[in-house]
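Re: the 334-residue chain
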Amino acid sequence: SVCQSKNITWNNIEQDDNHLYSQEDYVLDAHNINTLVFELTTKNDISDLYEKREEKELEFDFIQRILEENNKLSNKIGHIELGWDKSNPLLHSQIKKILVLIKETGCSVNIITNGAHFVENAENIDFEPNQNVTFFLDHPEKEENDKIMGESTYEGTKRAFILLKEKNIPFDIYMRVSQRNYDQIEKMNSFCMNYGVRNLVQIEIYPFDTKENEVLTDVMKEEVIRTIEKLNLNKSIHYSEAALGIDCSYQRRQRIHVDVDGNLSFCHFLRTLPNAQIEKDKSLSLLEYIHKNNKARIGFLKNKEKEFSNWEKPRKTVSPCSYCLHAFGLEKKW
């Protein structure tokens, strides 16, 4: 089986007669992937206090091949995401060509970036109706935000809002919630409403790429959840399913995540953990990626359903939960 973790025993899902892969044509005709995520580059242009990585970028020829294969599928993946919080996809040397390719395939695209130098980085980009931009912004006040994300991030993001409004491109905010800002969600929501942000999404920071004193305590997290529920915001930090001990959202099977090396991994959030990669062979076709992706996730979830209720300290809220972190190589219990 694929993506074997040292911490759990995997089911052989191919022996399950009722398993959906008993149909040979499943991957081609009935896959349920709705989003293809490319980590285009590890390059970043802010002095972010979180994880720093060696600079590299995903090969353009690989991206082009995967997009062309997707366009030939009978059930094409309709949405593309570029980037994540440890990188800026606009710094990829071929970003303009990549966005043109995505437009030609008829897919929508979400560009996940920071706003520090967005206006300058976007000078050579043709804005199109199929695009959406999501900015990381961690605090509603300039001084505090720039302590976390680096100087000019706050003002640069506001300039980006003005540009995107002129281009009629929708934009969202991802707020990484930590001990520095967990009590600022209501103010951040007011900030977003004031500047025309479409969605505010809160994302809890993770204990494997940041300092211990940044991670939320259980008491802080409970306060965050109460605020999110009071404001009726996107419940990215908790789901009813997770609270019941069933699952956390980051094992959803509707996404394919390809990192900067072309590796297939479980998700954005777990990609730096040692056991989170599903496949390292980037010569595989998109259909093979889809097959291996779904099979690994289904196998993982079958084990999780059996073991989760006995987990020593279940952080039963997503972002991701403690079980998933441990299964994919985080040694410390969370």
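The longest strand covers residues 108-114.
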